[in-house]
Amino acid sequence: MTRPLLLRGGRVIDPGRGLDEVLDVLLADGVVARIGRDLEAPEGADVRDAGGLVVAPGLIDVHVHLREPGGEHKETIATGARAAAAGGFTAVCAMPNTDPPVDDPAAVGFVRAAGARAGGARVYPTGAVSIGQAGERLAEIGEMVAAGAVAITDDGRPVSDAGLMRLALEYSRTFGIPVASHCEEKALSRGGSMNEGIVSTRLGLTGIPNAAEDVMIARDLILAELTGGRLHVQHVSTARGVAMIREARARGVAVTAEATPHHLTLTDEAVDGYDTNAKMNPPLRTAADVEAVRAGFADGTLDVLATDHAPHHYDEKEQAFDDAPFGIVGLETAFGLCMTELVEKGVLTLPELIRRMSTNPARAFGLPGGTLAEGTIADVSVLDPSAAWTVDPARFYSKSRNTPFAGRKLRGRAALTIVGGVVVYDVAAPPPRQPALERRHA
Amino acid sequence: MPSAPYLGKDLVGLEELDADQIRGILDTAEPFKEISERAIKKVPVLRGKTIVNLFFEPSTRTRISFEFAEKRLSADTVNVAASGSSVQKGETLVDTARNLEAMRIDMVVIRHGSSGAARFLGERIPSNVINAGDGRHEHPTQALLDMLTIRDHLGRLEGVRVCIVGDVLHSRVARSNIWGLTKLGAEVAVCGPPTLLPAGVEELGVRVFTRVEEAIEWAEVLNVLRLQLERMHAGYIPSLREYNRVFGITRERVERAPRDLLILHPGPMNRGVEIDSDVADGEHSVILDQVTNGVAVRMAVLYLLAGGAPDKAEVAKHGVE
Amino acid sequence: MDQRAVERALARMARELVERGQGVEGLSLVGIHRRGVQLADRLADEIERAEEVRPPVGSLDITLYRDDLMAIGPRPVVGETRLPEGGINGRKVVIVDDVLYTGRTVRAALDELADFGRPSRIYLCVLVDRGGRELPIHADIVGRRIETAPNQRVEVLVPELDGRLAVELVGGAEPEAA
Question: How close is the nearest chain B Cα to the Cα of C23, in Å?
Answer without folding.
Answer: 29
